[in-house]
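Reviewer has doubts. Consider these tokens.
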Amino acid sequence: MTAALRGDARVDLRERLAERYRAGASIRTLAADTERSYGFVYALLVEAGITFRPRTHRTN
């Protein structure tokens, strides 16, 4: 289990994730790269004021 992230560490991660998301990374990729849950990454992006891209339909 990953410890709670607070203060400057949370702000730093939030800004890095927002930058990568704006550059095209998916939320799932960001979650995997940071070993955090999809929901946690999504919440940080919401905090960062991200405008989310439309969902795409995955095909195999």
Notes: The chain has a mean pLDDT of 92. Helices lie at 7-22, 27-34, 38-47. DSSP finds three helices and no strands in the chain. The two ends are 31 Å apart (CA to CA).
